[in-house]
Structures are given as structure tokens and as C-alpha cells.
Amino acid sequence: MAAPSFPDGEPPRAAIIAAARRWLGTPYRHQGARLGVGADCLGVVLGVWREVYRTTPRHPSGYSPDWAEAARGEPMLGYCRDQMREVPTTARRPGDLVVFRWSAHVPAKHLGVLVAAQAMVEARERHAVSLTTLTPWWTRRIAAVFAFPPLATIGS
After folding, report:
1. Are 50 and 56 in contact (CB under 8 A)?
2. What is the mean pLDDT of residues 87-113?
3. CA triple 20-148-17, angle to 5 deg
4. Whose CA, among 11, 43, 75, 140, lies 20 to 30 Å from 114?
């Protein structure tokens, strides 16, 4: 399947990838979003967004470690759909955001930024922000893929 085209321009993929890689080694901290200090998976994405777009997207209000299990619906997917454009999972490319669910009957609750065809930057509890290979285990758990918006559409 061909990658979707964007009538308003392409996402700044190289800048997104470079920004995501700068987070490697940042300690895990729930609700954190500070480079080198602490971040969770959403915090990494917020930090990448802040660096690339020079603005901060709407941030979900405080969330507990088990927020997805306690929530109704798909709050993480809804948040991503409000900020980005969903693309087919088979059309994912470096510079896209990948959203995961741990099993079929629970809401999606984990994010990673693709930095290569089979590698992502992600933060998990008890781990520093890491470069993780997108193995079949991960691929089976993809709930959705999103393209970051083109630079020209932010702030307009």
C-alpha cells in the first residue's frame, strides 16, 4: 500500500526523528515530559512536538498509571486523532507515531515514535527512554498509526 499523501504538505519527518532520538536515555517518570530529567511515553511525544513545532499541543489532564483500564472508550486514540492524521498501519513510515494496546480487549495506552522502518523511541515504566526494535510482538499490538501534521498547519 502506498503512503498517503497530504494536500497541505508532508510532516517534518527528519526533524521528528532527530528530536525523538534526543530523548534516548531520559529516565522514566510518569507524567514527565522533560528531556534528560524524566518522561513517560506521552511525555516523549509532547517533548518532540514542542521541539519541532515550537508549541505545545493540548495535554490530557492528569492521568494515573492505570487510567486506560479505568476509562471508557479509547482516550489515547481520541487524543491522537484530535492532534494528528491517522494513516493505515501498513503505510507507517519513520517519523510517524505508533499507538499500541497490550491486548485485544483493552484500550490503547502506549506510544512510540518511529525513527526507522523497524525501530521506535519509546518510554516504559522501569526503563529509560529506549530505541526499541519493532518486532512481531510489537507489530501485533499496533492499534493505530498517526502522521504528525505538516509544519504549515500548526498555529494557522
Report:
1. yes
2. 94
3. 25
4. 75
User: Which domains does the chain possess?
Assistant: 13-150 (3.90.1720.10)
Indicate the SS3 state at residue 130. strand
Split at pLDDT 50, 70, 90, the class of 69 is low
Looking at per-residue pLDDT, the higher value among 77 and 97 belongs to: 97
Q: How far apart are CA 85 and CA 11, in angstroms?
A: 10
CB 9 within 8 A of CB 151: yes
Q: Which triple of cell numbers denotes residue 154?
A: 500548526
Distance CA 8, CA 32 (A): 32
- Give CA–CA dist 103/80, Å, rounded: 19
79-90 as b/e: b if 16+ CB within 10 A: bbeeebbebeee
**pTM exceeds 0.90, yes or no:** no
Burial class (CB in 10 A: 0-12, 13-18, 19+), 120: buried
Percent of the chain with pLDDT over 70: 85
* Predicted pLDDT of residue 1: 44
Element (H or E) spanning 85, and its range? strand 85-87
